[in-house]
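Form 12-C: Joint structure prediction
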Amino acid sequence: MSGSTAAPELDERLVHTSPLRKLLGRPELGSVVGAAAVFLFFAIVADSFLQASSFGTVLYAASVLGIMAAPVALLMIGGEFDLSAGVLVTSSALISSMFSYQMTANVWVGVFVSLLVTLAIGAFNGFMLTRTKLPSFIITLGTFLMLTGLNLGFTKLISGTVSTKAIGDMEGFDSAHALFASTLTVGSVEFKVTILWWIALVALATWILLRTRFGNWIFAVGGEADAARAVGVPVIRTKIGLYLGVAFAAWISGQHLLFSYDVVQSGEGVGNELTYIIAAVIGGCLITGGYGSAIGSAVGAFIFGMTSKGIVYAEWNPDWFKFFLGAMLLLATLLNAWVRKRAEATA
Amino acid sequence: MTATPEETAGPLVELDDVSKFYGNIKALEHVSLEVHAGEITCVLGDNGAGKSTLIKIIAGLHGHDAGRFLIEGEETALANPRDALDRGIATVYQDLAVVALMPVWRNFFLGSEPTTGVGPFKRLDVRKMRETTRTELLRMGIDLRDVDQPIGTLSGGERQCVAIARAVYFGAKVLVLDEPTAALGVKQSGVVLKYVAAARDAGLGVVLITHNPHHAHLVGDRFVLLKRGVMSGSHTKDDITLDELTRQMAGGSELEELSHELERTPTPTLPGSHGAKDGTS
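Section 2 - Result
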């Protein structure tokens, strides 16, 4: 047997794949170009944007979003959405706070109870999705609304107001504050500890995605779930695992929310779920799944951080922020659509 | 192809008078076939003839309701596709079970990825995956310079070949191919048939499902014809010519009737039939 028929065909095709096109095929590339453009733009129009202290502020804004954007990106690569992610952060913070205040003297007990409950909610999303086979949009929209209601309802029921009781004087608060919400000073610049969490999570997500079996399965269940099942990929376990990842990040974010201050507003978090998705999409995740990267989500979050703070440094009306975000999202999606077309050119 | 001891040891897979019912519908009745190592058994039939049902029985998706299903002489009832895989029966479906956006090497190992390292450092053996993919495809005669390209950028024929190479690599003894040439052009079909023959020469038993008698007769050793769920013929290569196979496949007397009906219409292409090559399945 010889491949004399196949080989020339391949050669023809390889000629078309110029190095530039190959580079453009990277999921992150569009977002990196976008980030450079946004950076230059604000470096020119906002004088204080280039100061070191501003950098710490921008990174902080990016990290709070980026911690959630990384697992949300993985979930999107796996072909699903989680609209409940935003309020789940608040739920996680409320559980920690209220459980600690009502039941124990040590905040760490509440923190761990919160971890369990948050993971259970994530598992519920994944379980409902894989059991009912309804679109994740519907399932998590349901969880989103239920959690929104529960957050407000429970808090009012227990505290009498829409915010929780202060837990700042409780045992373990200082150590929890150090882990989730402390500030590190490097030189004269202040960096929030969330930046470290962010970097760690993005690194972990990238490792999982590119170098583990589970990562291979994420791409597969998002790209073609039936094909994945046919070759023995555990589709259900993979999807539930992805929701657990989002829940874990929501727990970290929730603890940050709580220990940054010592009270939590129960109405917070609504709308954030879309911001996570936007960061992931700007970072190159296809809305239909099967393609994207965790690093891209970090770049997406960084663009978000630069834009939100850059507008402040430029002393503009913050209303413009949403416009920028929208325009960025459209551009990113157009680029992604082009990438997908290219990748599936002969499919 | 040289004779190996396996070939004389009886069929790898044998269906003996197998029937399958969906409720009160007879999907398949009294079908017998044999798959030998180093041979290609072709299953021919029109749409609705029961080819898919037959595949699903061999692949372990459905159980049979009557008759005997033997794997290497042992009577069996497969529980699920995984069970079939474990017994060395690999099925390549028409949709190929590949993920278009994923690189070729990730697709090749999907579901059975090799890992290296222990504990939290357990990771994909990327180097092995890439190299194996390259060499295995090369063995089938596909020279991929870049195993990183999304599998969706390969042609239909090449994707079919990757799927076949994957089945061969993972130790399949019996390869079931569901209409591998149905959606392909003439040239691409030729390429795929060459890989089917390569799999046969590697000692596998192949079940080739098709509705194209020309493709079947080129490579087949045995032919089973299905018509409305019953076996309308079973031949070996020696006792049937291409013309006879084509005639039987195209419907035999029904076809003569049809050509009579169509007589006054000046159709350039007489049912001979080349329809399957145009990608209508």
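Section 3 - Comments
Residues 1-7, 275-281 of chain B have pLDDT under 50 and may be disordered. Chain B is about 35% helix and 25% strand.
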